[in-house]
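re: ur question from yesterday

yeah so i grabbed the chain u mentioned. its 128 aa long if i counted rite. heres the sequnce exactly as i have it in my notes:
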Amino acid sequence: MTGVEIPGIGAFTEDEDLGWYRSEPIPVPVLGATPSRIVLDGYDNDPAQEDFHTAVRAFLALDRSALEAATPSIFAYYRDVLNDVGPDADLHISGPGEVLDHVLIGARMQIRLARLYAHYSADRPPFN
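ran it thru and got these structure tokens back, copy pasting raw so excuse formatting
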């Protein structure tokens, strides 16, 4: 296996089967310092790999207030999904102040760049 080093963050090991790089678990402040693996998707083919480094550093610089600031948008998304799937999926969340009580944080944060934004997604099941 090969890998890359992101200065100030650490080593990322290549997963040749999946075609991405992953870190060892790193405490993520925005998630209450929950250790999560950071996955870099599309790193090898990107002409500006330093942008991945910047995105990882920016993500790790966020604190809990960034997640709390997103609660109105998360709640709006919940309401949109509820409208699409119907009342059987209702978790009875009355407002943005309750929405984080129903969010499950994954063991892996995936970073994929699309030149206009950095996409962060969480994967629930832990993996080795």
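noticed a couple things. Residues 124-128 have pLDDT under 50 and may be disordered. also The helical segments are 50-61, 64-69, 71-85, 96-99.
anyway ttyl
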